[in-house]
Design brief:
Two copies of one chain form a homodimer. Chain A contains twelve helices and ten strands. By secondary structure, the first copy, chain A, is of the alpha+beta class.
Chain lengths: 334, 334
Amino acid sequence: MGKYREDVVVSSRVRLARNMDDTSFKERLGPSLGKKLASEVYGALGGEKAGYALIDLASGDPIDGRVLKEKRLISEDLLANKHSGAVVLNEEETVSVMVGEEDHIRIQSILSGFTIAECYEVANKLDDAIAKKVPFAFHDRLGFLTTCPTNLGTGLRASAMMFLPALSIYNSLSDCVNAISRLNMAIRGVYGEGSESSGYLYQLSNQLTLGLSEQEILDSVTTSVLRIEEAELQARDLLFKEGGAGFKDKIGRALGILLHAYKLESAEFMQAMALTKLGAYYGLITIGDMQVFERLMIDVQPASLQTISGKPLKPEERDIFRAKYVSQILKTIM
Amino acid sequence: MGKYREDVVVSSRVRLARNMDDTSFKERLGPSLGKKLASEVYGALGGEKAGYALIDLASGDPIDGRVLKEKRLISEDLLANKHSGAVVLNEEETVSVMVGEEDHIRIQSILSGFTIAECYEVANKLDDAIAKKVPFAFHDRLGFLTTCPTNLGTGLRASAMMFLPALSIYNSLSDCVNAISRLNMAIRGVYGEGSESSGYLYQLSNQLTLGLSEQEILDSVTTSVLRIEEAELQARDLLFKEGGAGFKDKIGRALGILLHAYKLESAEFMQAMALTKLGAYYGLITIGDMQVFERLMIDVQPASLQTISGKPLKPEERDIFRAKYVSQILKTIM
């Protein structure tokens, strides 16, 4: 199963919610407290020497914040409260510490593939380093205190971004989640509205943070990911058998659109990328560099695309530029 | 205008209808008379030494006859009466003399591009050669006698296969034909039902064969082709301006389908080829070898495709084989 794992689990993420014990977290940090805390966090992690950058969202080009949001390095919440918000990022963009979000500090570690244990290890070290400089609000019985009670205790949210085309197409994702209901997992579409996901990408994460140890949470998420992964791989086999020539045709035409369309909307792009990736899983399509392929999904979102083009783009111009860029990048890896 | 000519006029054709003066042409030639005449025609043209082949349609694999029909070297009529039918072909398949069609002999010369004068020159020489061995039915006042009165006189039908996407899309083909109505031309779709043409391919030919000299007929067809060609090129400019990004997108996606579909029906193939060719005219797509591209339109018709695959194909297998073959050939010229 190992060789398939990255075909299903695109990336893993661990987030720790923390708050200062000497400052209220009922309201947002103001701009001055926010700036001060961000600077302390930046220092605690070793600053520029250690490869970190401190990004003040209030100053600078607003598009930069939107790009970070599209890369899922910061949240919509932080972007909406950017007057008091900042983020500390490492060069590889695998570490993101948001300051001034719903909680004072949100430590995040993000890595490719099924790497929840590794993500936790990284986040834990960041947590230790910051804790040495910033005293955290901690209660002997409740654990780490958080703005929203759903994060109390460990403040830990472990999640896996899963590519689940076959379960989506068969509409059996909710059955899978029900089957592991005692593990209390939440699953939601990464892109698109509601439970629908335009690229068949879903985020699976723990709902409980209180009453369990960190290891118990990580274990339950791991168990859930493995169960869903297995169900997805079985569904993929079935889909291939049942889909026949019509399904292969759909996959081929999706690639044709990515390589040859003159304009390409975001939703169609996501759908075509998902089918192409599925085609690669089935061996129908060869993708030379999967990392470049995955990054493309982020790069062609509106703000990122505008940054690449170097100028503001109207919607139709954006669709034209997206089509050109997608075709150009894909041709280098196919 | 010269450089555009082949973008509009795909090929030219001249046909001469002839009958033997000592044999009735109210009914079909029987098998024995048919065979005898075919052999005389074959001999008159110089036979194998001169690069000709005599093909007896009654014997041999029926698929061979259908392939010749798809290549437009023989008519549906000859195929339907193959017990008394045969055809003499040259190696390049630019000459086809049908024996036992509606008329005893139909001499055809077919060349790429706008070459009506050259086609007539070839057909005229064939006519002279055959006339030396086979006395033709000829009337001093009426000229050559034919089975159907619409071919009386010269027995000459000169035609041009024209690629008219812009006039078709603008629905202005009938206006063009009306504008040259005094020239008495007929225009019809080469593929597809009725006046619709799936690949925007139309055959323009003279309706009158009587009361005009050969040269007058050739001149009136030439004038008509030039008028329609001019209208088509103007319509193409307009289409490009008015179509904008949506039109370019349609062209790009058509090429994407040709290169990446897993199955491809004939009508969709024709439409996509037409749009791709139009894309090449506009400089949006580069086609390395236009002859290979044009030949593909013939090669992927049912009987020809079956001959290439080397085995009988069910409809879905044929669509899958067509998609694979089209993609493979196009990749060599793009």
